[in-house]
Amino acid sequence: MIQTRPYEFMVKYTPQRDWIEGHGILIAFAMFFGGISGGLYLASLVFDNMLGMFIAWLLAMVAGGTDMLHLSKPMRFWRMMLKPGSSWISRGFILIWLFLGAAMIQLALSQWAPGTAETVFKVLAGIMAFGVAIYSGFVVGYVGAIKLWNSAVIPILYVISGLTSGLAVLLLVSFNKSSDTLLSVADYLLAALVAYAIFVAIYFWVATYSSVTTRDSVVRVLRGNIAPAFWLGMVLLGIIVPIALVAPFSLADNASTAAFAVAAVGTIIGGVMLRYVILKGGLYSPLLPAE
After folding, report:
1. Average pLDDT along the chain
2. Whole-structure pTM over 0.70, yes or no?
3. Is residue 74 included in any domain, yes or no?
């Protein structure tokens, strides 16, 4: 529940706390695990990396489990799937289960019976993986009461973030591959990081012009109590450091496992910080203008 006096909610910008403080922090982690799971599976399909696909499957399990733990009565989790026509949370939970089923069959076929059926389930699991990566963006973007979240850029930003973090995990599990494969994954990660940085800038730039409430949220993120998480956790550790570490080796066509490992870990931490910053920065508009 929001810890504020009723009259303050009426006349002041009120931070949302339900999805980021206390038990609600599980929502941020569920969104992150869902995004990285979908992104990792899609990246693993490109490089035909079975270990990456299996880790993506495990992370989807964690995402679903974290969603369930957030419920006041976890054993009634099945009710989350009953309103797909009106609830993005319901659609997302269904997508997770469909992905888990399709990916499990695909992994089994790839291991013991490769062929046409395997390809079919790769396509199905890939479609579901994209849905798992993007659905949390729609969950957040659909909340009209919090203007910072109510943006068409959010789903795109979330899926790019998930793909970037997924490529970071794939980079870590590719250290036993050839140098060419490792460099190829690093090249994809570098391109994803650049696109990620551009969409982060677009998202916050657009938000400053959306409304007074979103502008106040952006100021809170850039210069307020959330600023360290944004500038140090997301921008520096999650974008600048990984680009600075990956770019020289990518351009020189030379692989460095140490630099790539630090870049990958930083990228993953940055993905968590993105969810934290956006959820923490959300403000409810006052119902009445303040005097």
Report:
1. 89
2. yes
3. yes
